[in-house]
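Hi there,

I know you've been waiting on this one. I reran it after we fixed the sequence typo, so this is the corrected version. Both the input and the resulting structure follow.
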Amino acid sequence: MALKNCLKKHRAQLGVNQQELGALVHVSRQTISLIERGDYSPSVALALRLAGVFGVKVEDIFEYVDEEGDDTNE
């Protein structure tokens, strides 16, 4: 199972770097980097804070994909 994301795209659209986004959601730059690389799955609370910063739904940033790469939203 994998959690894919387009966090970097949303961050670029907002015009902030990883350090600035981390400060906005009260985590480190390293945490933002790990999420963007797909090496860390955020808590529900963090995912909601990120969505709030961008003014989008969590589902607009994160997508759960099963182990075989199939989108589970279908």
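Quick highlight: DSSP finds five helices and two strands in the chain.

Best,
R. S.
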